[in-house]
Specification:
Elements lengths: L1 H8 L3 H29 L3 H15 L28 E3 L6 H12 L6 H15 L8 H9 L5 H14 L4 H11 L3 H25 L4 H27 L3 H14 L8 H12 L2 H11 L8 H13 L7 H7 L3 H16 L3 H5 L11 E3 L3 H17 L3 H8 L3 H4 L17 H8 L16 H22 L1 H9 L1
Antiparallel strand pairs: 1-2
Helix pairs in contact: 1-23, 2-22, 2-23, 6-7, 7-8, 8-9, 9-10, 10-11, 11-12, 12-13, 13-14, 14-16, 22-23
């Protein structure tokens, strides 16, 4: 610093001004490049170069870890690029279009579903409810076109045309239950008619499924229709207050079709059991489905945290805990909350009512804001019912990502938090909803440093231009 000061004291005002302008320009370029590199790659260029190249020269290459080590996610886990980060899933608890989504639009004038979300549902319907043998049955041919129609009224009209051709067309009743029925009671009536027709067609397909590959495809389609109808009937019973009946229907469905676990019927069962306050049964379901080999979900992680919190939340006090320390049960509850928040960090703001809810979409993104909306929409009441549970969540959830300095690069219990969730959530959630983006990564030190250096150099250049003689006297002094 003394050497620099002595050098500056020998300069003329014009040369000193030129030097400060040049240094300001260079530091500005460095700042712009640092910012661009951080926005594109998520890391500081200066920090990356210093860690990757300068540190091995100073300390020896053999003592420094490879540059990629900061991005590892565990010895036995696949890399981030190989993980299905942004796969969109069907929402297990999606609402009824006619009886719920449409009613919201009538009252508010806002579209609760995006075109992208409804287009995904149309693709699902074509996959689940159609097959190559539909050309043999005129009613199924009409329904094949109905699922591709964009206009709801055109779909409903096609469903009635299919029923005119065949009064036992189960998929036509399904469409009417979903989109024409304006109440859950009406939807249940349609689904009961669909169940009667679907069981009859399913039995016929079972008898001849081994005759050809086409018959096997028809059996798969008829199975999908039957499972869908039974599940929606159980959801109707749940919404109409017949919860024990709904639980029985869900359990029977899971026993009858155990290979269809990817449909996540157990999440419907968990929600219904929580409404019954059958916490022992909830724990039994979690013991079966909360397994590392199965796709995790917010419903599983946060329900497990709720059960752990239930054991200690009523007597939990932050002041008391800070004085005497946490008990074993409290540590288990806090760790369960940390695990849940690490999986989906958007949920706590909805449970704590720090952010307003909207109707859940028909599809969700695991670990995304859409999944958080869908979970909180149905489970907020269960957290409120347990005294102190939300208080415990409020006291502990923000500490999760302090334990994981770089959640986008390294996870603690799960693979790193996906950085692509924001784009998919904006497609799934309505435009009037403010999409939650988390975690917001802090700017690296060197971006702050170059910004300060640029500002300081610019200030020196300005002062030198305005007061050249005074600045030279100041430097010499």
């Amino acid at each position: 610093l003394l050497t620099v000061t002595m050098f500056l004291s020998t300069l003329t005002p014009k040369f000193y001004f030129a030097l400060t302008v040049t240094s300001s320009f260079i530091s500005g370029l460095i700042f712009v490049f640092e910012w661009w590199h951080f926005r594109k790659y998520g890391t500081s260029f200066i920090e990356q170069v210093s860690v990757s190249h300068l540190r091995p020269l100073i300390r020896g290459a053999e003592n420094s870890p490879p540059a990629q080590a900061a991005f590892s996610v565990g010895e036995n886990e696949p890399s981030r690029q190989n993980m299905p980060e942004c796969k969109v899933w069907r929402n297990p608890l999606n609402l009824f279009r006619g009886a719920e989504y449409s009613r919201y639009m009538w009252v508010t004038g806002k579209e609760p579903l995006t075109y992208y979300d409804m287009n995904l549902s149309a693709q699902d319907h074509q996959t689940f409810f159609t097959c190559d043998t539909d050309v043999l049955r005129p009613s199924d041919t009409v329904m094949q076109k109905a699922w591709r129609e964009r206009n709801p009224q055109a779909r409903i009209k096609a469903a009635y045309q299919a029923l005119e051709l065949n009064n036992d067309c189960a998929t036509a009743y399904v469409l009417l239950a979903e989109e024409e029925a304006t109440t859950i009671v009406d939807a249940e009536k349609y689904f009961k008619q669909a169940l009667k027709a679907g069981e009859m067609i399913y039995r016929k397909s079972q008898n001849c499924h081994s005759q050809s590959p086409q018959h096997e495809a028809q059996l798969r389609r008829d199975t999908n229709v039957l499972v869908y109808v039974k599940r929606r009937l159980a959801m109707c019973a749940r919404k109409l207050g017949r919860i024990r009946e709904a639980v029985k229907m869900m359990r029977d469905l899971m026993k009858e079709f155990p290979l269809l676990s990817m449909l996540n019927i157990h999440e419907n069962l968990l929600e219904a059991l929580l409404e019954l306050q059958a916490y022992a049964d909830v724990q039994a379901v979690l013991a079966k489905y909360d397994d590392i080999s199965l796709p995790k979900s917010a419903a599983i992680c946060y329900t497990a945290a709720l059960l752990k919190a239930r054991a200690v939340s009523e007597r939990f006090s932050p002041e008391t805990a800070s004085k005497r320390g946490l008990s074993t049960a409290e540590i288990n509850a806090v760790e369960a909350i940390h695990r849940a928040v690490e999986f989906n960090p958007h949920v706590p703001k909805y449970l704590l009512e720090m952010k307003s809810l909207v109707l859940p979409p028909e599809h969700i993104l695991k670990r995304g804001d859409s999944e958080a909306v869908a979970y909180a929409f149905f489970h907020l009441q269960h957290w409120k019912r347990i005294e102190g549970a939300l208080n415990l969540l409020h006291c502990t959830w923000e500490g999760t990502f302090r334990m994981i300095p770089y959640p986008l690069e390294k996870g603690h219990l799960f693979y790193p938090y996906p950085s692509c969730t924001e784009t998919a959530d904006r497609e799934l959630l309505p435009t009037f909803h403010e999409v939650s983006v988390y975690p917001q990564k802090e700017l690296p030190f060197f971006i702050h440093f170059t910004a300060g250096l640029c500002s300081f150099s610019a200030m020196l250049a300005l002062l030198t231009h305005q007061f050249p003689e005074l600045m030279v006297i100041f430097v010499k002094a």
